[in-house]
TrEMBL record:
<feature type="binding site">
    <location>
        <position position="106"/>
    </location>
    <ligand>
        <name>Fe cation</name>
    </ligand>
</feature>
<dbReference type="GO" id="GO:0003700">
    <property type="term" value="F:DNA-binding transcription factor activity"/>
</dbReference>
<feature type="binding site">
    <location>
        <position position="91"/>
    </location>
    <ligand>
        <name>Zn(2+)</name>
    </ligand>
</feature>
<dbReference type="GO" id="GO:1900376">
    <property type="term" value="P:regulation of secondary metabolite biosynthetic process"/>
</dbReference>
<keyword id="KW-0678">Repressor</keyword>
<feature type="binding site">
    <location>
        <position position="94"/>
    </location>
    <ligand>
        <name>Zn(2+)</name>
    </ligand>
</feature>
<feature type="binding site">
    <location>
        <position position="123"/>
    </location>
    <ligand>
        <name>Fe cation</name>
    </ligand>
</feature>
<dbReference type="GO" id="GO:0000976">
    <property type="term" value="F:transcription cis-regulatory region binding"/>
</dbReference>
<keyword id="KW-0805">Transcription regulation</keyword>
<keyword id="KW-0408">Iron</keyword>
<dbReference type="InterPro" id="IPR002481">
    <property type="entry name" value="FUR"/>
</dbReference>
<keyword id="KW-0479">Metal-binding</keyword>
<protein>
    <submittedName>
        <fullName>Transcriptional repressor</fullName>
    </submittedName>
</protein>
<feature type="binding site">
    <location>
        <position position="131"/>
    </location>
    <ligand>
        <name>Zn(2+)</name>
    </ligand>
</feature>
<keyword id="KW-0804">Transcription</keyword>
<dbReference type="Pfam" id="PF01475">
    <property type="entry name" value="FUR"/>
</dbReference>
<dbReference type="GO" id="GO:0008270">
    <property type="term" value="F:zinc ion binding"/>
</dbReference>
Amino acid sequence: MLDLERILRDRGYRLTNQRRVIVRELEDERHLSAEELYDRVKGEHPELGLSTVYRTLDLLTELGVVRKEDFGEGYSRYELSTERVHHHARCDGCGSVIEFNEELMEYLALQVERETGFVTDWHEITLHGRCAACSA
């Protein structure tokens, strides 16, 4: 939370209670949509509206605190940005999202950089298919 406060302050923003609540919720659960996040916090924080959740997620994404993910569902999911590079496998059957870290993916990104001169700031690969339960 201290880093968040510093990041906000450096860009001229304050660490409001709404921002604190949203970041804490994303610390507990990854890959939440704005609506899911709102549903999780509205009971304890009725002052927090859905539009505030969207505005806050947009700001935190712009500041690099939150990463916005598109898994092809027609809406975005959010997670805290971390130093740890990871990738996703999304089940087209049940919608579950599995995180994984595979060195081969890191090698692939480096190979693309070497071959094309493209400079990667960060990368993420999403696999689409069916989880073990749905494919059985």
